[in-house]
Design a protein that fits this description.
By secondary structure, this protein is mainly α. The chain is about 55% helix and about 0% strand. The chain has 3 domains: about 110 residues, no CATH class; about 200 residues, Rhodopsin 7-helix transmembrane proteins (Rhopdopsin 7-helix transmembrane proteins, Up-down Bundle), CATH 1.20.1070; about 40 residues, no CATH class. The chain has 14 helices and 2 strands; from the N terminus they run H-H-H-H-H-H-H-H-H-H-H-H-H-E-E-H. Strands 1-2 form a two-stranded antiparallel ribbon. Helix 6 runs parallel beside helix 8. The longest helix has 28 residues. The radius of gyration is 28 Å and the shape is elongated. The protein starts with 11 loop residues before the first helix and ends in a 12-residue tail after the last helix. It is a multi-pass membrane protein. It is found in: Endomembrane system; Golgi apparatus membrane.
């Protein structure tokens, strides 16, 4: 089709039979901030490709017969990976949404996703900001954990590694919600699976591995094999969304059941209720993913609400992690041997036996799960 010929056949009724046909009209393209523009104004724009097709042949006859004009994208859009073709798809999507609303029809999903109102270069601004805040909360609590827990604690390496794995996942979640591409989508999904697997590994180390290190090492090797097979299948064979969701849900439920069983077995410990709260909160909040509705104000959907609601959970989790060590058998023994006296905060003054070296918190945290006893001064 050339620029001045008759309008193209309207494919709306072919793509969506339930939608009444929209008369072919001539209208100006709304590309004020786009880098594609027609050679002349008033180019026919009646051939809107509605879900699942959105401008499959962008530089061709769908828009104009002319060549694309030079790029007028802001620099931040280019840096975020937005191309001219992406801008045209975005604008076409909103023209299509307007047609659906004008006809009183329900707005569909485009390529399996609801339409979101872009802010600057952020494709899904609410989810992107929420992912960033989750990562920031993880970083802050990691710094607090490293300053309050000695590196000699048996759980220290596992907890710190889990925090870094979580930070990496929230970084890629932020990138994915900023710009949805095949690469960022895969990295978001794979890093989320890594967090789930590392979470169940942390559970194994805390409940079994401290007493049986060989068992924890074997379980870690098994999880690495599972992660490798999972990523290889999705990357090289078939990216199956249903399988990925089912696998993550199965591991998540196993992780929750394991933690709750441990809490039930150790229900007399004063810190167990915080562990139960973390597990139940994470499982309950994940149900938000089952909700599926058009974004409120075209910004806030169920996924974004889920990300926002998990921000306080990081604080609760990292406040609970050091507590089991403070109630270990050796820590209770130290409390029975030593009584507080006039001394700097956190120090022990033993009344009947020589004072152990270090603060009570350090001794308890360093001794949890360890068969060794701290050396006593005076020997």
């Amino acid at each position: 089709m050339q620029g001045g010929s008759a309008p193209l056949t309207n494919p709306i009724s072919q793509s969506c039979p339930r939608l009444p046909p929209v008369p072919s009209t001539r209208c100006k393209l709304p590309w004020k901030g786009s880098c594609w523009s027609p050679r002349r104004t008033g180019t026919p724009f009646s051939s809107l490709y509605i879900h699942p097709k959105l401008l499959p042949d962008l530089p061709g006859q769908l828009l104009s017969a002319g060549n694309p004009s030079p790029s007028r994208q802001p620099i931040y859009m280019s840096l975020a990976g937005w191309t001219c073709r992406d801008d045209c798809k975005y604008e076409c999507m909103w023209v299509t949404v307007g047609l659906y609303l004008q006809e009183g029809q329900k707005v569909p999903q485009f390529h399996g996703k609801w339409p979101f109102s872009r802010f600057l270069c952020f494709q899904e601004p609410a989810s992107a900001v929420a992912s960033f805040l989750n990562g920031l909360a993880s970083l802050v609590m990691l710094c607090r954990y490293r300053t309050s827990v000695p590196a000699s604690s048996p759980m220290y390496p596992t907890c710190v590694a889990f925090a870094w794995v979580s930070l990496n996942a929230w970084f890629w979640s932020t990138v994915f919600h900023t710009r949805d591409t095949d690469l960022t989508e895969k990295m978001d999904y794979f890093c989320a699976s890594t967090v789930i697997l590392h979470s169940i590994y942390l559970c194994c180390v805390r409940t079994v591995g401290l007493q049986h290190p060989a068992m924890a090492s074997a379980f870690r090797a098994l999880l690495l094999l599972l992660l490798t097979a999972h990523v290889s299948y999705l990357s090289l064979i078939h990216f199956d969304y249903g399988y990925n969701m089912a696998a993550n849900v199965a591991i998540g439920l196993l992780n929750a059941a394991w933690w709750l069983a441990w809490c039930l077995w150790n229900q007399r410990l004063p810190h167990v209720h915080k562990c139960v709260a973390v597990v139940l909160l994470l499982q309950g909040l994940s149900l938000l993913e089952l909700l599926d509705f058009p974004p409120l104000f075209w910004v806030l959907d169920a996924h974004a609400i889920w990300h926002i609601s998990t921000i306080p959970v990081h604080v609760l989790f990292f406040r609970w992690v050091p507590l089991p060590a403070q109630h270990s058998p050796l820590c209770r023994l130290l409390r029975s041997l030593c009584a507080p006296a006039t001394h700097p905060p956190g120090q022990l003054a033993c009344t009947t036996r020589p004072r152990p070296q270090g603060t009570l918190s350090e001794l308890c945290l360093a001794s949890v799960g360890s068969p060794l006893r701290p050396q006593l001064s005076g020997r």
